[in-house]
Amino acid sequence: MSMIFGVPMAVLYGQLLIGVINGAFYALLSLGLAVIFGLLKIINFAHGAMYMLGAMATVILFDNLGVNYWVALFLAPVLVGIVGVLVEYFLLRRIAGQDHIYSLLLTFGVALIMQGILTNIYGVSGLRYSIPDVFKGGVNLGFMFLPFYRAWVIVAALLLCFVTWFMIEKTKLGAYLRAGTEDSQLMQGFGINVPLLVSLTYGFGVMLAAFAGVLAAPIYSVTPVMGSHILIVVFAVVVIGGLGSIGGAIITGILMGVVEGLTKTFYPPASSAVIFLVMVIVLMIRPNGLFGKEA
Amino acid sequence: MTMMKKLLTSAVASALMVGGAQAEISDNVVKIGYLADMSGTYRDLAGPNGLTALEMAVKDFGGKVDGAKIEIVTADDRNSPDVASSTVRRWVENDKVDMVAGLVASSVTIAATKVLEEADKLGLVNGSAASSITNEYCTPNHIHYAYDTYALSIGTPTAIVKEGGKTWYILTADYAFGHAMEKDVTRVVEANGGEIIGSIRHPFPTPDFSSFILQAQASGADVIALANAGADTTNAITTAAEFGVTQSGQTIAGLVVFLSDVHALGTEVAQGLQLTTGWYWDMNDETRAWSDRFMEETGARPTMVHAGIYSSTLQYLNAIKATGSDDAQTVRKQMMDTPINDMFAKNGRIREDGRMVHDMYLAEVKTPEESTGEWDLYKIISTIPADEAFRPLAESDCKLVTGK
């Protein structure tokens, strides 16, 4: 078998694919963050908690009401989206226009409260959720065993990423959104309900996180603290991609998944740090991120 | 100035209580600090329910020992050695804490016991796994009670190697505990004629194990051993099931598996998993009776750590009662001189290196068909006698044993 730096090629292909799968999660999560920051200028530290809520909701809906995976895939994000709209309406709106640090602290506080309450009720050992029957099993690709569910994750995540990007960059609704955040008074004058638009945008951003949470429920252990681990990584991804860049967040997400996957192969102990290393390097060379617009 | 005042007050107080045994209990209060991970990865194996176990022991004493009130203070160590050091320092220097209980992440314990040694207070370690805690990191100021990596590595790996699992691949949590576990398991596997063909040190905690499982799978080893704990272990086991590790003929060996982990995984995923434990709630009438009490308070069955916290606290309070003193060395000596016979252990004893030695058990997770309830999870396969389970003193590097 051919080798690269002592690692068999087959193993390497496997790691690349795993990297893309994890990257799909990063892309979906950083996309939501980028939408919220890009359009609302809110640094949403509650994003990890919303991802966690999506996963927890999936399990809780199933355990208590027997709601299946496919319904949850739709219902959980909607419920979390409503939570998001409420957070925006009752809390974030009050500090609109203030320095970024206010939204950061407020959302961080919201995240800690959600996490704390759920930890008290459910503990941290993780809740059980099985992979839906259609996706049980997998296929042997020769270089690795690919569980069907992981393949579905890539498809679903990338599809949603594309739809979101298309909606914001290419449709009239997206144009309203971008214009509304650029000059809200002018848009109000045109008869557009900007505050509603802002609420819905925040709600949509956290829906993306919740959707990632539903995707994660069958394969990661679902715990109230699952969001806090991934949040910081996703922030780094957004910074590397360029704050507010929608397309940048998607591409960087996948890229960082792959970088992390390769690190896990060649030097595992560094795998939790490598994304931050990339972030430092990118910030030194391109302070606005890989895909950021010049300030 | 306040220090002087306190000295004077206690001198006067002691003079007034001449002849009374209370005179030797500092401030006439026995203060216990409960330090544990209350919100992170290790919450469920010790955490808030461990505090309940501690309170149960104090309640059994009626909240008082030898006329002195028993008080409990508590803190979340957040699995950080820095937080642990500063908390324990504050406790012993300002808050007059006499004993620290809980102590979960091994790195936290090593940091905390260092402070306890300087202040000459006592630590009763139950949550931690690293056997180095009573080896190179031993102090005259702590006792390691429920289990350790040495004992865990004797049970499961020996059994698996004997069943034909010769080649091993280890996934190790990259910190003190993981390293100790890896060392201990390597020794046992090699002694039994097995071979370690590879290992990975993964960051702690790791949310996604697919990459590491894939590498372990590609190694072709008979056994993939998990030298990690808590959510890392459950994550790794779930991912291994997803990637068809067991279908392809490889065995998963969880080296540190708690009841709370198996409960989270469920018998569907965890069935057949072999593990070593220091205690199980459903072993006999005594363990069941205590577990029923515990469940009434917490809504969950106790892990071996919870049981160890209760048992060790009882031993501690009994020692104070017997000696009339809460001085660390007096109490520790009394605890060493008294065999432990309670719901946790039979003929348990505390050695000079601080290791409490008692029987350990090899258990197997029941199948969904065998299990009759949510917490009916293990069947005990065999007992590992106390003398075989823990590191013999002859092999010890502990300064209290070698005298160096």
UniProtKB/TrEMBL annotation, chain A:
CDD domains: TM_PBP1_LivH_like (cd06582). Keywords: Amino-acid transport, Cell membrane, Membrane, Transmembrane, Transmembrane helix, Transport. InterPro entries: ABC_transp_permease, BCAA_transport_permease. Pfam families: BPD_transp_2. The keyword Phosphoprotein does not apply. GO terms for molecular function: transmembrane transporter activity. The chain crosses the membrane at residues 12-35, 42-62, 68-92, 104-129, 149-168, 196-220, 226-259, 266-285. It is a multi-pass membrane protein. Its main location: membrane. GO terms for cellular component: plasma membrane. It is found in: Cell membrane. One of its GO terms (biological process) is amino acid transport. Belongs to the binding-protein-dependent transport system permease family. LivHM subfamily. This is Branched-chain amino acid ABC transporter permease. It comes from marine sediment metagenome.
UniProtKB/TrEMBL annotation, chain B:
InterPro entries: BCAA_transport, Leu-bd, Peripla_BP_I. The keyword Signal applies. Pfam families: Peripla_BP_6 (PF13458). Keywords: Signal. SUPFAM superfamilies: Periplasmic binding protein-like I. Residues 1-23 form the signal peptide. Gene3D superfamilies: 3.40.50.2300. Residues 30-366 form the Leucine-binding protein domain. Transmembrane segments: none annotated. Belongs to the leucine-binding protein family. This is ABC transporter substrate-binding protein. It comes from Marinobacter antarcticus.
